[in-house]
Amino acid sequence: MGDQDLPGILVSGLEGPHGICEDHIGDLQKHFNVITMQEFLESNTQLGPKIQAVYIWGGKPPVTHELLQSLPSLKIIASAGAGLDHLDLKLVASFGVKVANTPQAVSSPTADMAMALLLAAARRVVEGHRLAIAPDTENFSMNWMGQEVTGATLGIIGMGSIGYKIAQRAKAFEMKILYHNRKRRKLEEEEAVGATFCESLDDLLQRSDFVLLAVSLTPQTQRLIGKRELSLMKSTAVLINIGRGLLVDQDALVQALQTGVIKGAALDVTHPEPLPRDHPLLTLKNITLTPHVGSATHQARRQMMENLVESILASLQGLPIPNEVRLKRDNSVG
């Protein structure tokens, strides 16, 4: 714990894989009395009334009904990143607590990561690395090839801020861009990146050389890509997922990769994370896996922290909250 006179914020911890970034602790302590989950559990009666904000980093700490009941002074839950599938927004709203996230901070680095995965999968970068360093490699074959990116068709599922930034990058690679989204973008936005709207997801799947998932996880999008959808894709196509692991039926994906239904996959997200060490996805050569690092740059993580601090301070001062997440009447996010 820090300065007892400052407003209290609850964090998962100060160290370890689920702790907040070590470089950010000093910045947080300038504004808040930083209380770890362990400290809270050891003295929840004393500390509960002092906590006015929950600072979520990497989806931790989990916000449960029990936790909300034990924080009578809670005003805001500030969650790093764009995804909100770790929060029960209806439950939080029932306690009169606000929610804020950091979508702008993550959009550019996540779009960069999407293109990195696309390029790595297309040009078989990970396979090539293994070949180049293998002790039994004596020659490099002229017939060891990948797929061309320039001029290929990219189908983006989810054209929010991240999806749009991916389209901007893909345009520079002279890719043909299709997209499927709940709402169609404005005509001028489409024209700026050369994107064509596909009202039908099936149409996008059938026409794309690369299918890229940049959509939020909701009950409607869970297992959006399953056996049927994979079968609609070209046998030369690559699936890229930078959204959430549960967007894809992983059993169906394993089968599709093993049997040549699609050419390959590149995933920054899986379910669970990490995968069990005996999971069949870990044994396949035609897949590239990274450990959910879409926004993992020093610059983005610092901006995320600064955005969260700004939102918490605004909430405590009764000011408009930057990046406030509002729950609509139909329980969707607006």
Would you identify the regions where 5 or more consecutive residues have pLDDT less than 50? none
Helix content: 25-40%
Rounded to an integer in angstroms, the radius of gyration calculated over CA atoms is: 22 Å
The SSE string, one letter per element, is EHEHHEHEHEHHEHEHEHEHEHEEH
Give the strand order, joined by hyphens, for the main sheet. Answer: 8-7-6-9-10-11-12
Mean pLDDT over the residues: 95
What structural class is derived from the secondary structure elements?
alpha/beta
Strand content: 5-15%
Sheet with most strands? 7 strands, parallel
Count of distinct strands: 12
The outline comes out as: globular
Number of helices: 13
From the N-terminal CA to the C-terminal CA, the straight-line distance is 35 Å
Give an overview in words.
The protein is built from 13 helices and twelve strands. 35% of the residues lie in helices and 15% in strands. It has helices at residues 25-31, 37-42, 44-47, 65-69, 89-94, 103-122, 125-133, 161-172, 187-193, 201-207, 227-232, 250-259, 298-316, and strands at residues 8-11, 33-36, 51-56, 76-79, 98-100, 153-157, 176-180, 195-197, 210-213, 238-241, 264-267, 287-289. The strands form two sheets. The chain has a seven-stranded parallel β-sheet, with helices on both faces. A five-stranded parallel β-sheet has the order 2-1-3-4-5. Helix 6 crosses helix 8 (161-172). By secondary structure, the protein is an alpha/beta fold.
